[in-house]
Specification:
By secondary structure, the chain is mostly helical. It has 2 domains: about 70 residues, no CATH class; about 210 residues, MetI-like (MetI-like fold, Orthogonal Bundle). It has 15 helices and no strands. α7 packs across α8 and α13 runs antiparallel to α14.
Length: about 300
């Protein structure tokens, strides 16, 4: 197992470097001069040139890229052009807030999504199946920013029972978590239903029923347990999306997380923060995929063999 983990980590290095390279090149393709944005409308030509020299933007792109990769290898993500502070500090400040949002969303969406999927599979073609499918389709089809705006209009503007934005209290989590949960519940419920329907047709499930096992035991210990692998995959993917900042949701609710940091940095042409944030998200996703594969072995010992 340790050899497998080491091989996966080594193979992930080209992927991470590739993501870093793409983010570096894309930022150079975005119209606009970061030095001019930082200097402001009253900035003179001398101010712009001084800022360009300070940021290293007056050097050839290849030189900038080699310096960027060299700093990454030494664990230096650079310095923010807006704040003047290290990028690692900005990420360390915002990442826990996104992690809180992601974990709370999973706590809500996983049991609800799995429960709806199991009920839909067991009651296939009945009212519960139709209701579950409607909820799943709504969650998957409606854009998260649209769901967020609707919740803001209803609960924050009209009813005035929940805060519009920020993260200063427990109630500030309700609307963004509800927005992301509805989106995640749709995916998890659809995958759970599909996996359960496939397992319920297997011979060992019919054998368990023929031996007189109770319905709950058959569903939870024989069917659901063997349907966990694809469900774990979709949960891992959703958690990866949430770690990516749930960008639109954080923008709608002014949530001070990684997604909001990324959007603000792109608007301000803060190259270092954008590249550093994308790099950290890429590393997190690679490690998350590795944890998902290890979870497969924990759920199904046959995979280890």
């Amino acid at each position: 197992m340790s050899r497998y983990v080491l091989n996966r980590l080594l193979l992930s290095i080209p992927t991470i470097l590739g993501v870093a390279t793409i983010s570096f090149l894309l930022m150079r393709l975005i119209p606009g001069d970061p030095a001019r944005v930082i200097a402001g409308v009253d900035g003179t030509i001398e101010d712009i040139e001084r800022i360009r020299a300070k940021l290293g933007l007056d050097q050839p792109v290849l030189t900038q890229y080699l310096r960027f990769i060299g700093n990454l290898l030494m664990g230096d993500l650079g310095t923010s052009a807006r704040s003047g502070g290290p990028v690692t500090s900005a990420i360390a400040e915002t990442a826990p807030r996104t992690l809180q949002l992601a974990i709370l969303t999973l706590i809500v969406s996983v049991p609800v999504g799995c429960g709806l999927g199991v009920l839909a599979a067991v009651r296939r073609g009945r009212v519960m199946d139709i209701l579950s499918s409607i909820i799943a389709v709504i969650g998957v089809s409606m854009p998260v920013y649209w769901i967020g705006l609707l919740l803001v209009i209803v609960f924050a503007v009209n009813l005035q029972i929940l805060p519009v934005a920020g993260n200063r209290s427990f109630w500030s989590f309700v609307l963004p978590v509800a927005t992301l949960s509805l989106y995640s519940i749709g995916f998890i419920a659809r995958q759970t239903r599909s996996a359960m329907l496939e397992v319920l047709r297997q011979d060992y499930v019919r054998t368990a029923r023929a031996k007189g096992a109770g319905a709950l035991r058959v569903i939870m210990f024989h069917a659901f347990r063997n349907a966990l692998l694809p469900i774990i995959t979709i949960i891992g993917i959703q958690f990866g999306n949430l770690l990516g900042g749930a960008i639109l949701t954080e923008v709608v609710f002014a949530w001070p997380g990684l997604g909001r940091l990324l959007v603000d940095s792109i608007t301000a042409r803060d190259f270092a923060v954008v590249q550093g944030t994308v790099f950290v998200i890429a590393v997190a996703l690679v490690l998350l995929n590795l944890l998902i594969d290890l979870a497969y072995a924990a759920v199904d010992p046959r995979i280890t063999l």
